[in-house]
Amino acid sequence: MSKKEVINENYLEKIPVRNENISWKQDDENKVTLEIENTGFFNFLAQKLFKKPRISYIHLDDMGSFIWPLIDGEKSVLDISVPFEAHFGEKAQPLYERIAKYFQILESYGFIGMNS
Question: Taking the model in full, what pTM does it have?
Answer without folding.
Answer: 0.82
